[in-house]
Amino acid sequence: MKKSLAFISLLIFFVGMEFAAFSQQQRFPKPEFESGYAQPVTSMPVPRDGMFALLDVLVLIAVLSLITWFILKKRSRTGVVAVSIFSILYFGFFREGCVCSVGSVQNVVLALFNPGYHIPLSALAFFVIPLAYTLFFGRTFCAGVCPLGAVQDVFLMRPVTLKKWLQKALGLIPFIYLGLSVLYAATATDFIICRYDPFVGIFRFNATFFMFAIGAAFLLISIFIARPYCRFFCPYGVLLNLVSRVSKNHLTITPSNCIQCKLCENSCPLDAINKPVVVKQMEDKRSATRRFILLSLIIPALMIVGGWTGANFHENLAKVNSKVRLADEMLHFDSKTMKESLEIEGFRTSGKPVEQLYLEAAEIVKQFYYGGWILGAFIGLVIGLALSGLSRYQYREDYSPDKGACVSCARCLKYCPVEK
Amino acid sequence: MKKDRRDFLNTCFRFVAGAGIVGVAGVLAVKSQKGDFLWQLDPAKCTQCGRCATSCVVTPSAVKCIHVYDMCGYCDLCGGYFRPNVKNLSTGAENQLCPTGAIKRSYVEDPFFKYEIIDELCIGCGKCVKGCGAFGNGSLQLQVSHDLCVNCNQCAIARDCPSDAFSRVPIEQAYKFAGFKTNKKI
Ligand code: SF4
Ligand code: SF4
Ligand code: SF4
Ligand code: SF4
Ligand code: SF4
């Protein structure tokens, strides 16, 4: 008798728990106070953003205009350094490096793929405005507005040149990184650029040890190798690089006409100065045709191989998604031998049927399958184009910055003896 | 002649790139008209795992316990305030559930007590929330305090939360309470 009573009360307790989410008031009804007690208001502090977001965009435009003027009109490295320091202080330490243009790529992708998500206007502005400036003036944004670029730039003391092949090989990483971050943003999995931002933890003084070590390593390397993050990781740099190649008014090393004195030849810490290509090196028609045919075979082949590889790895790629991971965990969960993880406990309390979770996870895995194909093909294409770039000669008379790779830091300008 | 052709191609590509940028901006600007979003957690999904206290990028966490007074029973034996199996209902630290002593208990009238959260002390660990949910009305609830939250592009707790409780919410519904509707506009 006693046992069954206990059981019934337990049952009532559990039903009560189920009910709790909807009618929690029932358990202990709110008392009717007689002493004229005034109940405090439940605190709901107002968001602090709003005004700052607008201010950020205005500051961005102002600083970009200023640095562009310094670079293109004044041709002043000092101006660039001054702006860099301001950017580190404002966008970095004061605004704590968020939202930044680099990360905004993911907001844009998420907004394009996910109809339910409305991108904040400031994130959109941070994505578009530097690209628009770059289209007209080259990568002046990189020069000293981007806090990530600026903080590496001010650390550069003893630049060393990397081997050309190494630069080319490392230069492929940003494309892969961009591809991955687009894939993860499009599937609403994670914002990996923000997660692995090496400097944001330093700007905020709260990095985990691991991220702090990475950030510090980047800064140490920056002393010798110019802008390692910009050149070999930054996914937004990929876009800026492409846009800058067709920019209208890019910085030129000489204010007037190049006299081929070669003084600037080794002045660029990023190795972004193209040497003149003498006519003799130009290839003849026959070999050009042969090269063209070869490339038109190699590039599609690389894309197919890349796509196939990517699709084969789609399950590994999908593991990053928390839902897929949870479904996987549930599938292999054995309540006898294993301890329930927090994730499984959370899922159990949510009362969602397991089948639904599996269906949702399967849907995501399918997205990753197609995503894997696209990502792989994209990487194949990039490698193919990089190969074709190696074997292409572009006729050039003067020393000039490589419009894609040059970040308009204005270091090379003072090497040129030519007066206006 | 060679140079002209290159310039012409460059101009073409420039217009293509420009059109692309304007296109993306245009499409998304229309969408972003709908207003800003903030991060918030759904107390109905939260399992008080404790990661809210540790994963936030601001220290102490931007997640705080918020007391929804309308749901509170003003109990003497508060499941959110006292440890389970306390001997006597005194405010000694050894009796309190909250690791930082962030809950203030004050007498209202017999037999009711008021519990207030001292925001400066609360670290958002959710211990009291768990206690209140298990033994009380569930009037203590974890919420992202928007005056402290820096509204990260990707909330660091959201990706660590085992219960998928975090989501972006429109600014008009900045707070989400379980079993209690916020009609107030911010
Ligand atoms: S401005 Fe000159 S030194 Fe700076 S990245 Fe461009 S080419 Fe190199
Ligand atoms: S220093 Fe000036 S003139 Fe000399 S090679 Fe460089 S750009 Fe030409
Ligand atoms: S991380 Fe999620 S489950 Fe854990 S306390 Fe925060 S909201 Fe609740
Ligand atoms: S127990 Fe944790 S969540 Fe509750 S008031 Fe104390 S610190 Fe805040
Ligand atoms: S958005 Fe950032 S500051 Fe706000 S709760 Fe999440 S991690 Fe903390």
UniProtKB/TrEMBL annotation, chain A:
Start and end residues of each 4Fe-4S ferredoxin-type domain: 249-278, 395-420
What SUPFAM superfamilies has UniProt attached to this entry? 4Fe-4S ferredoxins
Asked whether the UniProt record includes Electron transport among its keywords, one would answer yes
Cellular component annotations (GO), alphabetically ordered: plasma membrane
Q: Which UniProt keywords apply?
A: 4Fe-4S, Electron transport, Iron, Iron-sulfur, Membrane, Metal-binding, Signal, Transmembrane, Transmembrane helix, Transport
Q: Which residues form the signal peptide?
A: 1-20
Q: Name one GO molecular function term.
A: metal ion binding
Question: Which InterPro entries does this one have?
Answer: 4Fe4S_Fe-S-bd, 4Fe4S_Fe_S_CS, Electron_Trans/Redox
- Sequence intervals crossing the membrane: 51-72, 79-104, 124-148, 169-187, 207-226, 292-311, 368-390
PROSITE patterns per the record? 4FE4S_FER_1 (PS00198), 4FE4S_FER_2 (PS51379)
Name of the protein in question:
4Fe-4S ferredoxin-type domain-containing protein
- Per the UniProt entry, what species is this protein from, by scientific name? Labilibaculum manganireducens
Organism ancestry: Bacteria, Pseudomonadati, Bacteroidota, Bacteroidia, Marinilabiliales
Automatic annotation (TrEMBL), chain B:
Q: Is Iron included in the keywords of this UniProt record?
A: yes
Q: Which SUPFAM superfamilies match?
A: 4Fe-4S ferredoxins
Recorded hits in Gene3D superfamilies, A to Z, give:
3.30.70.20
Q: Which residues cross the membrane?
A: 12-30
Q: Which residue numbers delimit the 4Fe-4S ferredoxin-type domain?
A: 37-56, 113-132, 140-171
Keywords from the UniProt entry: Iron, Iron-sulfur, Membrane, Metal-binding, Transmembrane, Transmembrane helix
Q: Quote one Gene Ontology molecular function term.
A: metal ion binding
Q: Which residues form a coiled coil?
A: none
Q: Which named protein is this?
A: Ferredoxin
The organism named in the record is Labilibaculum manganireducens
